[in-house]
Design brief:
304 residues; mainly beta; Beta-galactosidase, Chain A, domain 5; eight-stranded antiparallel beta sheet; 2 helices; 41% strand; globular
Length: 304
């Protein structure tokens, strides 16, 4: 029986009162975590965190009400994994944007109830899910998700071969906000960025980021924490990262969101913003033979 069978998964990895596996009507398998500190859902396709809601808080992670769970398609919202490249492939436009990791099956390889009350689950990208034409290198890739008062996501790339290879990557995290008019994003003041909306011109961020139109910016050479200051929800979402030198800020605004078709209502874009911890552009990562690279992000709430 395949490990991707719900019965087998529950026999091997369920944690009574904390973690169980169910099958969505689409046929996708979902890990459901509910402990005293938080609840979360994670799709095994893409090892894709879909929701995270600490106890007593509004959701931290945004999942579109019109998100479609379909085999082989990325889910709108949550924490899609962009790997092993970010954006378009550098040399082959037929390869999928943002890589293949977010749309292929991952395996569960471990689960653990931690002493602090949080729940950890570890996913691994099986060799059968890695198209050799798109990544002709020996590697081991894991996504380690810890759900508690904070959410911790760690994307680990291990080069198990004899040749150095290069990766681009991002945790393309969608955050739930009260309204796009009521937030500002701090932590990127003074940083250089490439402005996709402005023909990839290189610019410098002066002050805190506010959003009044489509925004798609790739900030480079920054390992700083970012804060989404949300006056409507009277909270800050802190994004604290290690192993990342790029940050992407994205909101499609009204026209682009309408064309996508899976943002929900005409105003769905107003309730989300993406602040992505990444390694892209000049910050792509070279992983030496035998070496391991970790992209580690902690998401937490602070009251204001």
């Amino acid at each position: 029986m395949s490990q991707l069978d719900v019965t087998t998964l529950n026999q091997k990895f369920a944690i009574p009162g904390q973690l169980e596996f169910t099958e969505d009507e689409s046929g996708l398998i979902i890990a459901r975590i509910a402990n005293k500190q938080a609840q979360s859902t994670i799709s095994l396709q893409g090892a894709h965190v879909m929701t995270f809601e600490p106890a007593g808080e509004k959701p931290v992670i945004w999942l579109s009400p019109a998100a479609k769970l379909v085999r082989g398609k990325s889910i709108r919202g949550g924490v899609p994994i962009c790997w092993p490249w970010f954006g378009a492939h550098a040399t082959d436009s037929t390869f999928p944007g943002h890589g293949f990791a977010r749309t292929v099956p991952w395996q569960v390889v471990a689960s653990e109830a931690l002493s602090d009350g949080s729940t950890r689950i570890t996913f691994e990208l099986p060799q059968s899910s890695i198209p050799s034409a798109q990544l002709p290198h020996a590697c081991r890739v894991r996504n380690i998700v810890t759900i508690g008062k904070e959410m911790i996501v760690e994307l680990v790339t291990e080069n198990t071969g004899q040749i150095m290879f290069e990766i681009g990557e991002a945790l393309h995290t969608y955050f739930a906000i009260s309204d796009v008019d009521k937030i500002r994003i701090t932590g990127l003041e003074g940083c250089a960025y490439l402005d996709k909306v402005g023909d990839w011109q290189r610019k410098t961020q002066a002050d805190a980021i506010t959003i009044t139109a489509e925004i798609d910016r790739l900030y480079v050479d920054t390992d700083s924490d970012c804060l989404i200051v949300d006056s409507g929800h009277k909270r800050c979402i802190r994004i604290a990262k290690r192993g990342s030198l790029s940050t992407v800020v994205w909101n499609p605004w009204v026209e682009k969101a309408a064309k996508m078709g899976d943002f929900g209502s005409d105003t769905g874009y107003r309730g989300m913003v993406c602040v992505e911890s990444a390694n892209a552009a000049e910050n792509v990562v070279k992983v030496a033979a035998g070496a391991t690279h970790s992209l580690h992000v902690v998401y937490s709430i602070e009251k204001i």
